[in-house]
């Protein structure tokens, strides 16, 4: 179907360490449509982060088929994977992963510098837009070490959305944040989703998972549940997107 | 700060990592060993006071001609007396003329190093004869009884240690001489003399230029410095030059310490370069070890954080880190000291090859009090440098963040800056050391392979010194040469005999000359040329190629003849490369000869008269038949047609058959004599080469270590960038560019410092600016490649991880 952004078919991931075979993912099949907000949940070690790495082309599967935007990306070259990550995927990590030597603007600009089709002024415009969306324009010349955790994650969100990717992959985006900052970041994601972004988020925080419209439960490397969340999830939030940027 | 419990802990940590411990101790041993060795070696060579009382204020004075320093008795007798009269700030004055003496005994004549001295010279060295006495003023008068004081070795070897030696006489230079004293064992002042006689020259009774040449000796009065004396000498000599332009044209004088006088021209530049290189190498070694300790500190940052959490004071943490530095530097230093001691022992035999005769008596290399002092200074210095890096790293770090994890950002910036500083330092140090060392090595190679203009293969040389007493007329001297040449020519084992005042490769007299038809404004404008007397076949026999005209032949023989052969360098300089055949020149400073015009009959290839790297290497030469201008000091060169021992026996027999009082001395192959010219710089060059090799190893491993560390610390960053879409190529290029930037920042000052040092050494070694430029480019390319390679390898390794693994990398 035309609006199927991600299609996984019988995906497997096996780690081999000193003759020990660990099945991180076993025959995972799922589809994510454009505009969907999906959360992947499960206990520690269940394979949810491995699944997100495969979705983000940060790792390759041991078996199975992976289609992104209709293209089979299971066996593409490293260079092609890098190109797709750059243009089609935006990452938000649990530990922010900002580059300490770069200031906020440079961090947000970083993925854009890998694209040849953007001029310097275009990149600056896109950085400005992204920082405005997360209300971090006033901190453009600050370094990550000068920011709070919540601010760092907002910069990471700006970096993820700066290049207008097809999908945003978030790995425990609130894991390193206090509850207030966590809610602010989640509100930001809600806002992005409401603007049409496709989001896939790994979390073991039920409150965060509830904000998605679809929840996939993973256990021992297998999808054990894939369910739509009731549309009234937003009612449980205690902070709005507008309030979020103020935190 | 330093706690015994921490010492035990440091020992345990080091023993748990034997590879790391061995590596760091080895690096420190190499760095400290080489530096201690070089400092001790140079101190003995150039700074250690002679082993006499009050030697620290003992200076010598010699002449300087057109800015070039001469040593070993080059101050004119009359100049010396003017200096003695006018110089202020001197407590005691004396003078000595180093020469040689033929001493005849029952088993034939032998040549000894001798010194003609003012009577107070032994007092200047605060040394009294072991037996007998020194000279009286009466014995220093012309016409007094001939007396001599002999050295301990001569007494033991020549006189069998006879206690009655003081009542005996020997023939010295053909004159019966009474022995009046024996000096103590080990006394060879001024350099390697074994027999001392009064100088007996009274400047008031002689014309300027007729007296001998001396080395002035003096004790500085309290409060006077060498600089004061040198300033006064410039003024005094300038006045003399104006008053006596004919004899003093371009002449000046200088004062220096005794050991420094042996360093010659450019000695200060050479010493400075050696010291700088030694210090830089030590810093390089310290930075490497410091970096290794820093890596360990980073590995243990969690442990350190726990200690802080448990209340460890910062001083205690630094103390704990310092213990490792103390142990590594101390053990490395002790090993280095042992290696340096061995090296100094070996050096003793190597330095014996620097001079024709015995090495200078104060060259006693070994572990002395200075070596021990420098050992402690260096070990303490390296402890501070190596301990400083990890201490700096750990000071002010956010340990709470370390404990909470996920804090690489907080420490990353500081680490990154430190790593960049380390790489830049390594680049700077290695470039400086390598450029300087390469200039020295290349300069030595050029000097060693220089064409002196003569064929040295299978040629044996020997010195013969005619005595003034026996050969008091030019006729007698000329006849001796003719007889010796004809007899040797017909001797078994010898062919192609050449007898000259000097051979190519030897320094020779450089008087002023005048070319007929050229106008000279005043006495100062006469040029100088090397002036050598040779037997008529000498140039041909030595293989000095003829360019124009002819060699000397039998028609040039005779004191009444006036012919010369000049080198092509003489023609280029004075005849604009036109044919000089038939044109005439005159030796202005005649040294006893009757001044006359000399007709040029031939032009030969350029010969180097002196060391091939010295400023005189390009000086032109004038050759005169020895039958026209006989000399007392002769050198015989013989082509060998049999074993060397056969030729030596034949030479000695022939000499004895002519004059039993004449020994042949300094008998050695011509090539050995030539090699001796570069023995000193060859040795220095080997030291530089060793430093260069160690510097390359230390710098390469150090730069690789730091870069590898940097990349490892940035593995997560690499993961992030790849997650954001950076291709492997992009990441690689980015890291290579970072490496290149660090290389440029460290390289520019390194190139300037290395270029400066190289230029200094290049002046000394006559390597030229082109060679310095080429060397610098090659070294820059080598170190640049090392940096890029050291960046590329760990980056490639980091890129082999999947991005997801890189993101989780700890």
Describe this structure in words.
The complex is a heterodimer of chains A (247) and B (810). Chain A is 33% helix and 28% strand. With 247 residues, chain A is α/β, with parallel strands linked by helices. Chain A has one domain: 3-Layer(aba) Sandwich (Rossmann fold), CATH 3.40.50. In chain A, the strands form two sheets. In chain A, strands 6-7-8-3-9-10 form a six-stranded mixed sheet, with helices on both faces. A four-stranded antiparallel sheet of chain A has the order 2-1-4-5, with helices on one face. In chain A, strand 7 (167-171), helix 6 (179-194) and strand 8 (198-202) form a beta-alpha-beta unit. The N and C termini of chain A lie far apart (40 Å). The model of chain A is unreliable at 233-241 (pLDDT under 50). Chain B is α+β, with helices and mostly antiparallel strands and 810 residues long. Chain B has four domains: 1-49 and 265-353 and 360-405, no CATH class; 55-256, no CATH class; 412-450 and 677-810, no CATH class; 467-661, no CATH class. In chain B, strands 15, 16, 17, 18, 19, 20 and 21 form a seven-stranded mixed sheet that branches. A six-stranded mixed β-barrel of chain B has the order 4-5-10-7-9-8. In chain B, helix 9 runs parallel beside helix 20 (679-713). Chain B is elongated. The model of chain B is unreliable at 403-411 (pLDDT under 50). Chains A and B meet through helix 2 of A and helix 14, helix 21, helix 22 and helix 24 of B. Chain B: GO terms for molecular function: transmembrane transporter activity. Chain B: Residues 21-234, 434-639 form the MacB-like periplasmic core domain. Chain B: Pfam families: FtsX (PF02687), MacB_PCD (PF12704).
């Amino acid at each position: 179907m035309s609006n199927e952004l991600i299609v996984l078919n019988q995906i497997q991931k096996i780690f081999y360490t000193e003759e020990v075979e660990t099945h991180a993912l076993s025959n995972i099949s799922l589809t994510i449509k454009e505009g969907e907000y999906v959360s992947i949940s499960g206990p520690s070690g269940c394979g949810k982060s491995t699944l997100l790495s495969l979705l983000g082309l940060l790792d390759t599967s041991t078996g199975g088929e992976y289609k992104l935007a209709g293209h089979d990306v299971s066996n593409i070259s490293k260079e092609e994977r890098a190109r797709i990550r750059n243009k089609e995927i935006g990452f938000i990590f649990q530990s922010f992963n900002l580059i300490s030597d770069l200031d906020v603007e440079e961090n947000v600009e970083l993925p854009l510098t890998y694209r040849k089709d953007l001029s310097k002024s275009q990149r600056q415009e896109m950085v400005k837009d992204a920082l405005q969306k997360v209300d971090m324009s006033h901190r453009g010349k600050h370094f990550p070490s000068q920011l709070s955790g919540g601010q760092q994650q907002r910069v990471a969100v700006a970096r993820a959305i700066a290049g207008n990717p097809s999908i945003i992959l978030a790995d425990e985006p609130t894991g390193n944040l206090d509850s207030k900052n966590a809610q602010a970041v989640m509100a930001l994601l809600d806002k992005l989703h409401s603007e049409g972004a496709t989001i896939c988020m790994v979390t073991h925080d039920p409150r965060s998972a509830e904000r998605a419209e679809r929840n996939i439960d993973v256990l021992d490397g297998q999808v054990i549940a894939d369910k739509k969340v009731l549309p009234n999830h937003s009612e449980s939030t205690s902070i709005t997107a507008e309030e979020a940027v103020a935190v | 700060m330093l706690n015994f419990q921490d010492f035990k802990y440091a020992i345990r940590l080091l023993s748990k990592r034997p590879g790391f411990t061995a590596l760091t101790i080895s690096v420190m041993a190499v760095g400290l060993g080489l530096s201690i060795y070089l400092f001790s070696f140079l101190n003995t060579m150039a700074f250690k006071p002679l082993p006499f009382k009050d030697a620290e204020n003992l200076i010598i004075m010699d002449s300087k001609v057109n800015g070039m320093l001469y040593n070993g008795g080059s101050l004119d007798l009359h100049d010396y007396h003017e200096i003695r009269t006018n110089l202020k700030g001197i407590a005691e004055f004396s003078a000595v003329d180093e020469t040689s003496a033929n001493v005849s005994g029952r088993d034939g004549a032998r040549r000894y190093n001798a010194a003609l001295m003012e009577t107070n010279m032994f007092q200047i060295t605060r040394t009294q004869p072991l037996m007998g006495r020194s000279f009286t003023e009466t014995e220093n008068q012309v016409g007094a009884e001939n007396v001599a004081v002999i050295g301990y070795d001569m007494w033991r070897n020549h006189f069998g240690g006879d206690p009655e030696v003081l009542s005996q006489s020997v023939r010295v230079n053909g004159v019966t001489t009474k022995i009046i004293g024996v000096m103590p064992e080990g006394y060879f002042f001024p350099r390697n003399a074994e027999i001392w006689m009064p100088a007996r020259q009274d400047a008031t009774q002689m014309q300027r230029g007729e007296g001998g040449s001396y080395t002035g000796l003096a004790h500085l009065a309290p409060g006077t410095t060498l600089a004061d004396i040198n300033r006064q000498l410039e003024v005094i000599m300038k006045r003399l030059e104006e008053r006596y332009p004919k004899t003093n044209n371009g002449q000046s004088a200088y004062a220096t310490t005794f050991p420094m006088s042996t360093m010659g021209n450019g000695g200060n530049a050479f010493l400075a370069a050696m010291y700088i290189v030694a210090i830089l190498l030590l810093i390089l070694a310290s930075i490497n070890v410091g970096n290794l300790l820093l890596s360990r500190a980073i590995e243990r940052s969690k442990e350190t954080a726990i200690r802080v959490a448990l209340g460890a004071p910062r001083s205690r943490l630094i103390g704990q880190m310092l213990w490792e530095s103390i142990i590594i530097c101390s053990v490395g230093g002790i090993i280095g000291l042992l290696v340096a001691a061995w090296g100094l022992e070996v050096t003793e035999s190597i330095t014996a090859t620097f001079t024709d005769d015995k090495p200078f008596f104060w060259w006693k290399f070994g572990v002395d009090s200075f070596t021990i002092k420098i050992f402690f200074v260096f070990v303490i210095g390296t402890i501070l440098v190596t301990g400083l890096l990890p201490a700096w790293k750990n000071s002010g770090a956010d340990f709470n963040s370390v404990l909470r994890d996920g804090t690489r950002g907080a420490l990353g910036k500081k680490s990154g800056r430190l790593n960049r500083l380390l790489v830049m330092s390594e680049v700077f140090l290695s470039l400086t050391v390598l450029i300087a060392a390469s200039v020295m090595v290349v300069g030595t190679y050029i000097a060693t392979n220089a064409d002196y203009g003569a064929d040295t293969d299978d040629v044996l040389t020997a010195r013969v010194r005619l005595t003034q007493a026996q050969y008091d007329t030019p006729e007698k001297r000329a006849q001796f040469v003719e007889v010796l040449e004809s007899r040797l020519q017909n001797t078994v084992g010898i062919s192609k005999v050449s007898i000259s005042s000097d051979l190519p490769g030897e320094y020779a007299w450089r008087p002023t000359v005048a070319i007929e038809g050229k106008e000279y404004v005043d006495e100062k404008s006469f040029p100088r040329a090397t002036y050598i007397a040779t037997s008529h076949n000498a140039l041909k026999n030595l293989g000095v190629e003829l360019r124009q005209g002819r060699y000397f032949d039998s028609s040039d023989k005779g004191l009444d003849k006036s012919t010369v052969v000049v080198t092509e360098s003489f023609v280029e300089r004075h005849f604009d490369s036109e044919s000089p055949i038939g044109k005439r020149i005159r030796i202005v400073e005649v040294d006893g000869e009757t001044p006359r015009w000399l007709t040029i009959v031939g032009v030969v290839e350029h010969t180097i008269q002196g060391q091939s790297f010295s400023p005189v290497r390009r000086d032109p030469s004038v050759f005169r038949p020895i039958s026209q201008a006989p000399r007392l000091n002769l050198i015989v060169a013989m082509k060998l047609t049999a074993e060397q021992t056969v030729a030596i026996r034949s030479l000695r027999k022939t000499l004895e058959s002519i004059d039993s009082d004449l020994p042949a001395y300094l008998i050695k192959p011509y090539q050995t004599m030539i090699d001796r010219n570069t023995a000193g710089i060859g040795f220095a060059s080997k030291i530089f080469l060793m430093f260069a090799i160690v510097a390359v190893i230390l710098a390469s491993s150090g730069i690789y270590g730091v870069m590898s560390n940097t990349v490892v610390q940035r593995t997560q960053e690499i993961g992030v960038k790849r997650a954001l879409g950076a291709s492997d190529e992009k990441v690689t290029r980015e890291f290579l560019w970072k490496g290149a930037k660090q290389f440029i920042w460290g390289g520019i000052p390194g190139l300037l410092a290395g270029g400066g040092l190289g230029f200094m050494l290049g002046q000394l070694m006559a390597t030229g600016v082109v060679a310095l430029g080429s060397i610098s480019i090659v070294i820059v390319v080598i170190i640049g490649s090392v940096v890029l390679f050291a960046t590329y390898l760990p980056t490639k390794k980091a890129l082999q991880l999947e991005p997801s693994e890189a993101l989780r990398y700890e």
